[in-house]
Amino acid sequence: MENCIFCSIVNGDIPADKLYEDDAVLAFKDVNAQAPEHFLVIP
């Protein structure tokens, strides 16, 4: 996908505050958090 921000995060092109990563998922803190513990999980 072109211009996919999540692809760029997975590839390491955009830095992220990673909480968890394995072969199936990546979990990281949202830069625009709406709650004290707001994070995203992507495949």
From TrEMBL:
Q: Which organism is it from?
A: marine metagenome
Q: Which InterPro entries match?
A: Histidine_triad_HIT, HIT-like, HIT-like_sf
Q: What is this protein called?
A: HIT domain-containing protein
Q: Which residues form the HIT domain?
A: 5-43
Q: Name one Pfam family in it.
A: DcpS_C
GO molecular function terms attached to this record:
catalytic activity
